[in-house]
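Consortium newsletter contribution from the modelling node. Members have asked for a concrete example of what our holo predictions look like. Here is one, prepared for the zinc ion complex that several groups have been discussing at recent meetings.
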Amino acid sequence: MNKQDKHHDAERKLNIHAPWRIEYINMLSKEEQGCFLCRIRDEKDNDAENLLLWRAKHSMVVMNRFPYSAGHLLIAPYEHIGQLEQLSSDAMLEMMRLACDAQKLLTTSIKAEGFNIGMNIGHCAGAGLEGHIHLHVVPRWGGDTNFMAVLADVRIISQSLTDLYRQLQQTSSELNLPQVNFGR
Ligand SMILES: [Zn+2]
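And here is the predicted structure:
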């Protein structure tokens, strides 16, 4: 099974009702062996274009370009590692602290009412990008549990990711986030 088929297979299993994510699958296929998180990490002059919100010492926070809900963030270590156990304790601590700061940001900026925070590790668990672990922070609102409502939001939000990026940067500076600085 080639890489593209594998991604399609994963999408079919997990996101059968999310046809808009085909763009994401196509992007992953195009990047072939490349890793979009490593690319974003290295493109230091393109943080706004890449929707990179925060760079901390060991890890970074990026807006998911193909979000499950508005403000869906990814927290990833700079290091290209595929397993949680490969993370240093400092990086683990930092990522969890960034998750706390991400909650503060999303609660203040877009009035998130709840969160799903987690990782998909391995193809069978739905990891779209294998090999570079990342923590998803997905904001939720009362009433969004109807899947079609989430989808409708996503369509609107995907057109205004840049506006949302600016808004989140503005709120970050107002709240002085992130507050993990580990001698950065
Ligand atoms: Zn990577």
